[in-house]
Amino acid sequence: MSHEWRNWAGDQACRPAILERPRAQAEVADALERARRAGHVVRVAGAGHSFTDTVLTDGTMLSLERMNRVLDVDRGSGQVRVEAGITLDRLSAALYDHGLALENLGDIAVQSIAGATATGTHGTGARLPNLSANLRSLELTLAHGSVLEVDERSDPEAWRAARVSVGALGVVTAVTLQTVPAFTLEGVEAPRPLDEVLENLDELVDGNEHFEFFTFPHSPLAMTRTNNRVDLAAEPRSPVREWMDDVLLRNHAFHAVTTLGRARSGLIPRLNRLVSRVGGRSHRVDRSYRIFATPRRVRFTEMEYAIPRVHAAEAVRAVRAVSERREYAVSFPLEVRWVAPDDALLSPACGRETCYIAVHMFHGMPWEPYFRAVEEVMDGYDGRPHWGKRHFQDAETLAPRYPGWDRFAAVRARLDPEGRFTNAYVERVLGRS
Fold first, then answer.
1. Which end of the chain has fewer surrounding CB within 10 Å, N or C?
2. CA of 154: how far to CAs of 136, 149, 151, 368, in Å?
3. Looking at residue 233, which CATH number applies to its domain?
4. Using one digit for the tens of pLDDT, what is the confidence trace for 224-270?
5. Cβ atoms within 10 Å of 133's Cβ, excluding its own
6. 223 CB-contact burial (10 Å; exposed 0-12 / middle 13-18 / buried 19+)
7. pLDDT tens digits, residue range 7-37?
8. Domain tally, the chain
């Protein structure tokens, strides 16, 4: 019997021949043996928050949603062992109970730890790398069920490949993470003129631990967001205030506006300017993970590119010009963030200070023409796509952008010589193994 699987956005779906939900590494190994006997390729689903066809398969799909436990906590070293299916929000709450936290998070925290790291998911902070850089070791279950514990000492090449692997090396069943003592953030959101923000980017990015901004097409404003550590007690919002801010205003009200824009695209410029003006200001002091992430209930699809930081202001202006073209009717903002370099072979931030620019399209609206036009801009800045978000690159266009491309391919050939962990997306972006 086949089972339908869909991603969070609802625009990627498949019917795998077999859908398994293992509870432990031994059950993963058994599932891989059954897939081998059936001649199935294998893909692993996390929380389904990727926008690409990364995990689609008509073979065997493994969902690790039941492998969601914290296995070990060493408060002295800050190293924490967890199963691969635990979500970032559940992990963050569990870490807080031990006086620990992840150093950084993105603005969405529903992803699984394995899915987030495998696709190069990130937050913002010019001195902070993406989430995969917090890994200290990971447990890979290979095609024949054998277990390989990979870290920097045991196998440096596999280590640099496995941290951001797009699921092409094996099944990550557990990881060890480096955490930090739990901390409080002061989060400030405020509108500022976009031109002013772009003229002072270095000061804003380097002067805050975490800086990002959103800007709607046709609006002269940027909605800036700064998060910085403070030595203050957390002041959590009341449940009513939290619902008003995060659900009613950020989701229900925004959904109503974007739905109107979808029905009457000619209103979008005015609606975007209205949303920017009434977005208002906010000031919060709370546990770090509560400040970093907010719920997202308005469905959309997304593309995001990593470019050298030095081109940030110029690239934002270029993408804004594309987004304001009448034929695209864009009702979602651009999102702009910064990430420190790392050394994972396929990390979009590998070896360079990075600015990420993301574009979105509301559910049910044509996204491909807009995304292709933005991608053309990103190509001009040696852009590297986020592995979990839409793009139109292939192995031929991507290889020159990653100095470690051939080294990753060599690790892939060594760890998955039969090409078990593949699908059409993997073969398009990484080539055949």
1. N
2. 11, 8, 6, 43
3. 3.40.462.10
4. 999 999 999 999 999 988 888 888 888 888 999 999 999 999 999 99
5. 23
6. buried
7. 999 999 999 999 999 999 999 999 999 999 9
8. 1
